[in-house]
Amino acid sequence: MSFKRLTILLSYSVFIIYSGLILSLFYFYNGRLFLDVLVSERTLFSIRLSLFAATVATLMSVCIAIPSAYALSRFRFLGREFIDTILELPMIISPVALGAVLLIFFNTPLGTFIQERAVQFVFTVCGIFLAQFITTLGIAIRLIKAAMDEIPYRYEEAAKTLGASPLKAFFTVTLPLSKNGIVAASILTWAKALGEFGATITVAGSMAMKTETIPVAIFMRLANADIEGTVVLVLILISIGFGILYGVRLLTKKSTIFTG
Amino acid sequence: MPLIEIKNIQKFLLKGIDLTIHDKELLALVGPNGSGKTTLLNIISGLTDYSGEVLFDGINVNGIPTHKRGVGYLLQDLALFPHLDVASNIAYGLKVRGYPNDTIKKRVDELLDALHIARLKDKYPQGLSGGEKQRVAIARAIAPFQKILLLDEPTSSLDAQTAKYFRIELKNLLKRFEITAVIVMHDLLGAEEIADRIAILHRGKIEQVSNPEDILFHPSSDRVSEFIGMPNIIHCDSCRVLSTGLIEVTSGDLAIVLPYEGTNISKIAISPHDIYISDTEPPGPALNRFKGVVTEIIPLRSMVRVKVNVRGRDLLTELSGEMFDEMNLSVGMEVFIIIKLRRLRYAE
After folding, report:
1. Which residue of A has its CA nearest to B76?
2. Where do the structural domains in chain B lie, given as residue ranges?
């Protein structure tokens, strides 16, 4: 077998593995139950909460990620390498561990002070926002930085020679040029937040109709041996995720117009 | 009065540069690669930090950031904004400076006309040719009424013929808009065509600042002479117009014919690589063809310079190492030389 054929065969095997797994869900698929679970108040709450929490966490992440990514992409400063390395932290350590770190922090005097005087995070919806924000921030910065690295600094220099302040050059040149990359990064961040489980359940718990996101609901149904219900929720999560990934593909294709 | 004064500038290779650029002057900064030309432009524009002083009209601009210096800069890679069309690229500097819309439109239209790019105004940079991009970038650089313009190798991406026309057009444009310009070039011939004065930069040091004629006929050092190609300078005793556009100049026993519209030439400069050398008598007319004797052979890295005595005068010629080996030249050997007509440069 030629090398070319071998590689193509392996890429087909990837497709077979994933599509086979998805297809296997239909073994337990029950049409009537699907509708019942889908329109149940608990499921709809989980969907709404998941979408809302992922959006809030993504907005928080992207708001911090854009300036941070710009600094990491453009400037050389003390500790830059260290910050760049720490971005990998949420990818290296498990989300449960990250959640545990957050829980431990809120048991320190400073954490207790924040909980009592500012915002209650543990076992609340705010805890979901925080957990998802912490797990997605690193990847958001990494993806936005990659988009900004693609934009030559020369454009900003040209803008400055034409009278644009550094801030104006950022808003009129760098940001529009990296717009598609930032949107794609935001969608991926949102998808990651949507599927986040470990940190969320550790910090916010799994209270039905309160802190139960779709991944947490899947876990809870599975723990109760409710396979059919689990299948429905998994299919919902897959549908949302697939739609997002397809959107990202379209956007990435478009972004090559400016950078190619 | 955008007079630019550069005092004791130190940065990377640049070691204590002093330079004055007069109002509305076109100064060409010429030098080999890595001599610090672009660094000097970046210093004037404020794109890089430095030690020393930069003054515009006698005012020290050291602490002033690039966007407040009012210096247009044509970057070597042009850096046209790919997300804006031609008209928006040109209007960019005016918009960020807060000019009213009618002023912006008027100025953009004026520059689109001046640079003959009106038909391109709705196009994006990706769809433009190298020459078109160059024109758009120049229009963009001078649009915000900037009286100082820095140009980094403005003709580097153009073919020789287009570059020649472009230089003439650029010179007229800069004079028309009364712009003081510093133009980085690596080609001395191009600089001679466009510049009021030429500054020769070599390894971070300014070797000579003079008008093009002085640089050619009175190089201040061996380094300048080497950079400008060690031209053979021939002082003319007399001139005789042969026909319209053709003149014969004599220097001692040497008579050279060259294209020239006037009646009097005092000196001519002939680059060594514009003198062909042959060990056998070349066929064809004997115009500017002389017999001589090799008096000295100077091997260089990839070429060989050969000094040939022609009627009592030493002329330096240049040929590739390969050609030299093929001809098997030696001191004392009789050879023929032909002077290329079109590359002669002269002083009146």
Report:
1. A154
2. 4-227, 233-347
Residue B193 has a pLDDT of: 86
> Considering only the top CATH level, what class is B233-347?
mainly beta
CA B26 to chain centre: 11
Average pLDDT over residues A171-191: 92
Q: Please report residues of B whose CB lies closer than 8 A to that of A160.
A: 47, 65-67
Give the CA count within 13 Å in the CB-facing half-sphere of B179: 28
Predicted local distance difference test score (pLDDT) of residue B209: 95
Q: Which residues of B touch A169 (CB under 8 A)?
A: 67
Q: With CB atoms and an 8 Å threshold, state whether B66 touches A157.
A: yes
**Least CB–CB distance from A163: residue in B67, B81, B83:** B67
Predicted ipTM of the assembly: 0.82
The rounded distance, in Å, linking the Cα atoms of A211 and A49 is 8
Interval A78-127: pLDDT, tens = 999 999 888 888 888 899 999 999 999 999 999 999 999 999 999 999 99
Interface of B with A in 247-306 (CB under 8 A): none
The residue-averaged pLDDT of A185-213 equals: 93
Reply yes or no on domain B4-227 having CATH 2.40.128.600. no
Query: Using one digit for the tens of pLDDT, what is the confidence trace for A118-152?
Result: 999 999 999 999 999 999 999 999 999 999 999 99
**The tokens of B165 are what?**
């026309």
What pLDDT does A258 receive? 46
Q: Could you name the CATH architecture of A47-259? A: Orthogonal Bundle (1.10)
Domains B4-227 and B233-347 share a fold: no
- Name residues of chain B where pLDDT drops below 50: none
For residue B342, the model assigns a pLDDT of: 63
Contact B224, B208 (CB under 8 A): yes
What are the start-end ranges of the H helices in B218-269?
222-227
How many whole angstroms separate alpha carbon B303 and alpha carbon B229?
13
Domain boundaries, chain A: 47-259
Residues of chain B in contact with residue A159, where contact means CB-CB under 8 angstroms, are 81, 92, 96
